[in-house]
Amino acid sequence: MKVKAAILVEQNKPLIIDDVTFPERLNYGQVLVRVFCSGICGSQIGEIDGIKGPDKFLPHLLGHEGGGIVESIGPGVTKVKKGDHVVMHWRKGIGIDSETPKYKWDNKIVNAGWLTTFNEYAIVSENRLTAIPKEIDFETAALLGCAVTTGFGIVNNNAKLKIGESVAVFGVGSVGINIIQGALLVSAYPIIAIDLYDHKLEQAKKFGATHLINASKEDVTAKILKIVGSSGVDVAIDNTGNPKVIELAYDITSASGRTILVGVVDKCSKVSLYTLPLHFEKKFFGSHGGECFPTIDIPNYLKLIIKGKAKVKEMITHRVSLSNVNHAINEMKKGNIGKCVIEIS
Ligand SMILES: [Zn+2]
């Protein structure tokens, strides 16, 4: 079977859109999924830019949040069946952790992770799929694969935000927006959004930010301390991966507060901190996808989405076809667009 896919062949180069050949058979624990919609997440931009260093898996497919329909199941699979509508998520849920698929392109092996979503079909590990009701649209499904589950997971599992605690969110892309939405759901206050772009801040406001700071025009530290008081903010969350922003986020976190890293710092960069407060109550740590557990979290969040208590589709600002994915990625890098999804089928 030939399948159209976006292939990362070289770091810092556009993706190549071409047909890849799928294996004839599914292996143990593998599921063939027809992909209808995929989100574009900061992680894929990081992969393309090589922020974690050289990539030994090149060439490979990419994308880690998607919505689709199960086409067929391999040996051992019991958690999903043909015809199921599914969220494709990068964090593990229940089910078999299968081997990763290998595709072919021009007689070369193309690698892929346990799921990829920038392709019309994907061979996915059973534990990266969660079946959802058929009335849930594929855009919502796609954003439940990372943006929503990561953002809400950071609020619940990493920040453990309590009612009335203050939070500052640096960088309000799709994960940042969902951190803000999650902070509102747990009644944190104030919820401060910081970004370089007014259009992103306006979006953050729609999702629950109570205060907006444009870091390209305003003194971020002074403004945050004016809002929360001189002792600092209870929780500061960095989505940028920028060392200077991380240092600022740490500095404005209170002596008993938590600074949480979501954005990944480039491998060549270093962060400089005054660490004495860490010997006392202050905490500084990184999040791994909000430590979310899709099997439990997705059905829980769907209850809120169905009742209109949480918004998902409203965060999408752009939709592109698979052929236009490079254009969308470039615009995202420039900060021109917010959450973009690829309409695949
Ligand atoms: Zn993601």
Task: Provide the fold topology.
Elements: E1 2-8, E2 16-21, E3 30-39, H1 42-49, E4 60-61, E5 65-73, E6 85-89, E7 102-105, E8 108-111, E9 121-125, E10 129-132, H2 138-143, H3 147-159, E11 167-170, H4 174-185, E12 191-195, H5 198-206, E13 211-214, H6 220-228, E14 233-238, H7 243-251, E15 253-261, E16 283-286, H8 294-306, E17 316-321, H9 325-333, E18 339-343
Parallel strand pairs: 11-12, 11-14, 12-13, 14-15, 15-16, 17-18
Antiparallel strand pairs: 1-2, 1-4, 3-5, 3-9, 3-18, 5-6, 6-10, 7-8
Helix pairs in contact: 3-4
Bound molecules: zinc ion (ZN).
Instruction: Report mean pLDDT, rounded to a whole number.
Output: 97
Q: Please give the count of helices.
A: 9
Evaluate the radius of gyration. 20 Å
H and E string? EEEHEEEEEEEHHEHEHEHEHEEHEHE
Oligomer: single chain
- N/C terminus separation: 16 Å
How many strands in all?
Answer: 18
Structural class, by secondary structure, is alpha/beta
* Fraction of residues in β-strands: 25-35%
Q: Helix proportion of residues, in percent?
A: 25-40%
Small-molecule binders: zinc ion
**Anisotropy-based shape:** globular
Stretches with pLDDT under 50, minimum 5 residues = none
Largest β sheet strand count, sense and barrel closure: 7 strands, mixed
Keywords:
26% helix; six-stranded parallel sheet; seven-stranded mixed sheet; binds zinc ion
